[in-house]
Write a structure and sequence with these properties.
The complex is a heterodimer of chains A (111) and B (112).
Chain A: E1 3-7, E2 10-13, E3 19-26, E4 32-38, E5 44-52, E6 55-58, E7 65-70, E8 73-78, E9 87-94, E10 100-102, E11 106-110
Parallel strand pairs in A: 2-11
Antiparallel strand pairs in A: 1-3, 3-8, 4-5, 4-9, 5-6, 7-8, 9-10, 9-11
Chain B: E1 9-13, E2 18-23, E3 31-38, E4 45-50, E5 55-56, E6 61-64, E7 70-75, E8 84-92, E9 106-111
Parallel strand pairs in B: 1-9
Antiparallel strand pairs in B: 2-7, 3-4, 3-8, 5-6, 6-7, 8-9
Classes of the chains: A mainly beta (111), B mainly beta (112).
């Protein structure tokens, strides 16, 4: 069966520091991959979308970037974090009927 | 994506069936009904989806009316761990459908 991993689970970073969040998927090949952010009490905001290695679509202009160096690895990065980058970051992969399976998430607090 | 309407909240006794309704009267012929849930402080969880036939998996059953204007998610034997916000979404099943947008959903509370 398919499994999606995200780490770390929680992170506290100062403003201006770099960020790297990693997501890996097991049990499927060539999945569509997604990065979302969910602010407290808010809905999901799609940040990046990838249909394959090296193919990244940015949905919202921001302080973040994404990379997909391997088929089942998706990385979210920032060179300098802002206070507004705080939130719950979720990685997801897309099933055959475009349903989305989410990872456990990373709760980021920028101080 | 078609608009959906769900009750704000529902209670269900542990061990009983939880029936969560969703209205989607403007659904188009090529749109599917998807259900997700989000337990507090966790990521969303896909539950089930369907086009026009009733569907069942290990988590739940989905009953879609013949005119497809409404559906019901059934959790056959609710447990305390099923307490969550349940979201009904109507959308096409194509690669262009990227952003998953949840409405306000139904807060299901399973009572001991």
């Amino acid at each position: 069966s398919q499994t999606i991993h995200q780490w770390p689970a929680t992170l506290v970073q100062p403003v201006g520091s770099p960020l790297s969040l990693e997501c890996t998927v097991e049990g499927t090949s060539n999945p569509n991959l997604y990065w979302y952010r969910q602010a407290a009490g808010r809905g999901l905001q799609l940040l990046f979308y990838s249909v394959g290695i090296g193919q990244i679509s940015s949905e919202v202009p921001q302080n973040l970037s994404a990379s997909r160096p391997q088929d089942r690895q998706f990385i979210l990065s920032s060179k300098k974090l802002l206070l507004s980058d705080s939130g719950f970051y979720l990685c997801a992969w897309g099933g055959r009927s475009y349903e989305q399976y989410f990872g456990p998430g990373t709760r980021l607090t920028v101080t | 994506d078609a608009k959906t309407t769900q009750p704000t909240s529902m209670d269900c006794a542990e061990g009983r069936a939880a029936n969560l309704p969703c209205n989607h009267s403007t659904i188009s012929g090529n749109e599917y009904v998807y259900w997700y849930r989000q337990i507090h402080s966790q990521g969303p969880q896909y539950i089930i989806h369907g086009l026009k036939n009733n569907e069942t998996n290990e988590m739940a059953s989905l009953i879609i009316t013949e005119d497809r204007k409404s559906s019901t998610l059934i959790l056959p034997h609710a447990t305390l761990r099923d307490t969550a916000v349940y979201y009904c979404i109507v959308r096409v099943a194509t690669r262009s459908a990227r952003q998953l947008t949840f409405g306000s959903g139904t807060q299901l509370t399973v009572l001991p």
